[in-house]
Specification:
With 311 residues, this protein is of the alpha/beta class. It has eleven helices and nine strands. The longest helix has 19 residues. The model has no long low-confidence stretch (mean pLDDT 97). The protein binds phosphoric acid mono(formamide)ester and norvaline. The site of norvaline (NVA) has 9 residues, from α6.
């Protein structure tokens, strides 16, 4: 159990929390999943503001349903309603929100905007994806790996594709939780030096190996093979050019055959079937993609309970 106090804190990056705190979130997520009724009034009369600059199915629905299931309420607000920093300064938005609501979840292009909101407002700010990180996704992913394999420390996750926000958060989570993460990308698409050095620094404590490779044979021995879209939200113009560069990095039956015999397949979704993953793999018994999507709900309920003071 962590000595860190979590109530009132922000979740901008998984590196904001120590290993014990991330373990506590996963442990609580399992409790919430097993006994949702025990938490049905935990956030009674609490309100979560949800701000979206990008589309969403999973993040919007799981945060909103999660608040309802905890006895609270969520407000959906998009950049079309009023872009933060454009219609009104970030500081003024932060100082308004903290007078009305108990927490805010933000999905933005700019990572700095979420960091700024966290710095300027007194309420917990939860990162629901930026161009840089997707921490709530990685929490659900490690919850799924934990359920599938029974433990996390020493397990091997091979992430295949673009060194993007999802890859960065998987590296951060792996570093803190002791999961070895190999990010396998075409040349030129590896996570950048800042992302790698932050993860390496965090990994020193757990001994997790965080590595980059550029050939698909690096999936050998992986307990989980993970992929994501080749062009993220905001990179639509690059999609055609990327398709050619990423062709050799499709997760198909041959790639799964190179991983451990009991390897699971993970994808944050949405999937572009026939591009980064074949339907054969996505719909195979080894694919836990919908359990993973379900776990967004449980992991984020745990995050909201801890940060908004419901437990
Ligand atoms: N995985 C994920 O964040 O999905 P959405 O973009 O639909 O929220
Ligand atoms: N890397 C993807 C993740 C979507 C959940 C994106 O940013 O679009």
């Amino acid at each position: 159990m962590s000595g860190e106090r979590m109530a009132g804190r922000d979740l901008v990056s998984l590196l904001d929390f120590d290993s014990a705190s991330l373990g506590r979130i996963l442990e609580l997520a399992l409790e919430v999943k097993a006994r949702p009724g025990d938490f049905s009034k935990a956030l009674e009369r609490k309100t979560l503001f949800m701000y979206f600059e990008k589309p969403s199915l999973r993040t919007r629905v799981t945060f909103e349903a999660g608040m309802t299931q905890l006895g609270g309420h969520a407000i959906y607000y998009t950049a079309a309603d009023g872009k933060i920093g454009k219609r009104e300064s970030v500081a003024d938005v932060a100082r308004n929100l903290e007078r009305w609501v108990d927490g805010a979840m933000c999905r933005t292009f700019s990572h700095e905007l979420v960091e700024e909101l966290a710095r300027l407002s007194k309420i917990p700010i939860i990162n629901g994806l930026t161009d840089w990180l997707h921490p709530c996704q990685a929490l659900a992913d490690y919850l799924t790996l934990l359920e599938a394999k029974g433990s996390l420390a020493g397990k091997k996750l091979a992430y295949v594709g673009d060194g993007n926000n999802v890859a960065n958060s998987l590296m951060n989570g792996g570093a803190r939780l002791g999961v070895h993460v190999t990010v396998i990308t075409p040349e030129g698409f590896a996570p950048n030096d800042a992302a790698l050095s932050a993860a390496h620094e965090a990994a020193a404590e757990t001994g997790a190996k965080i590595e980059v490779a550029h050939t698909i044979d690096a999936v050998a021995g992986a307990d989980a093979v993970y992929t994501d879209v080749w062009a993220s939200m905001g990179q639509e113009d690059e999609a055609a050019a990327r398709k050619k560069k990423f062709e050799a990095f499709q997760v198909n039956a041959d790639v799964m055959a190179r991983a451990a015999d009991d390897a699971i397949f993970l994808h944050c979704l949405p999937a572009h079937r026939g591009e980064e993953v074949t339907s054969e793999v996505a719909d195979s018994p080894r694919s836990l993609i919908f359990q993973q999507a379900e776990n967004r709900l449980h992991a984020q309920k745990a995050v909201m309970l801890l940060l908004l003071g419901g437990v």
